[in-house]
Each structure stands twice: as C-alpha cells, then as structure tokens.
Specification:
- The chain has about 280 residues and is of the alpha+beta class.
- The protein has 2 domains: about 60-195, Jelly Rolls, CATH 2.60.120.1440; about 200-275, 3-Layer(bab) Sandwich (Phage tail protein beta-alpha-beta fold), CATH 3.55.50.
- Helices cover about 25% and strands about 40% of the residues.
- The chain has helices at about 5-25, 40-60, 190-195, 210-220, 245-255, and strands spanning about 60-70, 75-80, 85-90, 95-100, 105-110, 110-115, 125-130, 130-135, 140-145, 150-155, 160, 170, 175-180, 185, 190, 200-210, 225, 235-240, 260-265, 265-270.
- Strands 2, 3, 6, 9, 10, 13, 14 and 15 form an 8-stranded antiparallel β-sheet that branches. Strands 1-4-5-7-8-11-12 form a 7-stranded mixed β-sheet, with no helix packed on it.
- Strand 11 (about 160) and strand 12 (about 170) form a beta hairpin.
- The termini are far apart.
Length: about 280
C-alpha cells in the first residue's frame, strides 16, 4: 500500500517542478522539423521506370546470338535451346538471335528445314532475304536460290511476306509459295516430302526451273556452275536424282534439256544448245 502524502512530499514536488523549468530555459529542446511534403518525383520515378521497360520490350533487343555454317556437301542438324530443330543443307549459313519477345533466324544462304517448338507469346521469325516468314509452331522448308525464296509447309501455318510488296501469304500444310524479287507468287500445292528429300541425299524435281536446280547442285559441288543465258535458267527439270553424284546429273542435262555443257577453267558453263560459238574458226 502507498503511504499518505504529507507536507514534505508536496515541497519536494514543488522543488522538482522549479528545477525542470530552469533546465528547459537553459537547455531548450530543438524545435521539431516541419513535416516533409511528398516529392512529386517519388510518384514519377515508377512511371519512368515502367516507360523504360516498355521501350526495351518494344525494341525487342537480342540477348544471345548463334552462327552456323555448313560447307559444300555437308549437312548439319541443330538443336536450339527452346527445343526447336533446324536442319541445314550443304553450303548453308544461318544466324540465330534470341530476343525478349521473339526468336529470330536469318537464312543468309542455302536451304534449311525448320521444326519449331510452339510458343504463342514468342513467335519465330525467319529473314530469308527478300522474304519474311512468321510462325508460332510448325515444320517448314525454306530454299533460297538466285535471289528467290521457296517456302513449303509440312505442318502448322506459316505467314510469308515479300519485302517488295506489302502482301502476306498464309500457307497451310501441303502448300508452298515462291517469292520472286520480293513479291510473293500464288500459293500452290507443294509436296513437303519432295521439298525435304535433300535430307536423304535425294533431289526430287517436278518442273523445277534449272536455276533452282543449279542452286541445289552448287551446295554439293565446289566448282562454280554458270548459266550463260537467263532463259536457260527457266527450263523445267523433272526427275529424282542423288546428291552424291552431281557429275552424273550434269552429264545428263544435255540429254534431258536443250542445253550443252562446256568448261572454262574450273567453271562448268550451261548454255543453250542452239547458242553459236563466237570464237573464230581456223
């Protein structure tokens, strides 16, 4: 129990009160700082960071690059990090770049078969010279030759856009399109098995222009093959041939088409059969 207060207690309280007042006068407490107003920048900064992030995503920068090249007569199978597969024909070069929003491949030259893992939020883009190809998940073949591009679809859907015309062709399985000088042609039926027979060392030509045939041969033949006349390159060739014997096919050409072969140094020249020799006769 607390004891009852007396006169001495009251006197002590009064003395302590006087001491406190004296101390406050000699040693005044610092005044409290005014309340800070929130800076406008504190709200603006998150917006700036968000805008920067959106800008980076919009530009879709590459964070990883890969480069693959096959020599003449060599084929190569590539397994990509996302599970996609690319098979390169002979004399083919591709550049693979991984971006934030897309997967991209530049087909610099040659022919390649693409088997793409589906990613709806991250499409697969192929730059094939005069043609742009966009897919989500599919299997298709791209053949570049003499500045033109032939795209054949085995599975899925493929959108092909020409660089010289603002027109896009949508290909379904069993269809193909040829992009000439950056302009997509008519979508026609295409046999994917024939288009990809090069994997098994076979060429299947069905009315194929000789210029495209020569491009296929050149991927397995180190010496240059030249067409002396543009019209010769338009001659159609049909048949099944082995890519292991390019010399045999070259020897057969004059028996199948109205052409003749000649050699100039290391180059093989294919010219019209009726072309006159302008060299002086003795």
């Amino acid at each position: 129990m607390s004891r009852p207060r007396n006169k001495d207690d009251a006197a002590v309280d009064e003395a302590l009160a006087e001491c406190r007042e004296t101390l406050k006068q000699r040693f005044p407490l610092p005044s409290s700082p005014p309340a800070r107003k929130p800076r406008k920048g504190s709200k603006v900064l998150p917006l700036v960071l968000l805008a920067l992030a959106a800008g980076v995503a919009w530009k879709d920068p590459a964070y990883r690059n890969e480069h693959f090249v096959t020599q003449v007569g060599q084929r190569q199978a590539i397994q990509l990090a996302d599970g996609s597969k690319i098979k390169l024909d002979g004399g083919t070069e591709v550049r693979v770049s991984w971006h934030l929003r897309t997967r991209q491949v530049a087909l610099v030259r040659g022919q390649a078969l693409f088997d793409i893992s589906p990613m709806h939020y991250r499409p697969f883009l192929v730059d094939a010279g005069n043609a742009d190809i966009r897919v989500v998940g599919t299997r298709f073949n791209v053949n570049m030759y003499a500045g033109d591009v032939r795209v054949t679809v085995a599975q899925g859907k493929v959108a092909v856009t020409g660089r010289a015309a603002d027109r896009t062709s949508l290909l379904m399985p069993g269809q193909q399109v040829v992009v000439q000088q950056g302009i997509p042609g008519e979508v026609v039926k295409g046999n994917a098995e024939d288009a990809t027979a090069w994997q098994e060392s076979r060429w299947v030509f069905a009315g194929t222009p000789l210029a495209e045939v020569v491009a296929a041969l050149q991927r397995y033949y180190a010496q240059p093959i030249e067409l002396t006349d543009p019209d010769v390159g338009k001659l159609p060739l049909s048949g099944v041939f082995s890519s292991d014997s390019v010399e045999t096919l070259l020897a057969l050409l004059p028996e199948i088409l109205p052409v003749k072969l000649s050699r100039e140094g290391e180059a093989v020249r294919i010219q019209p059969q009726a072309e006159k020799n302008n060299s002086p006769t003795r």
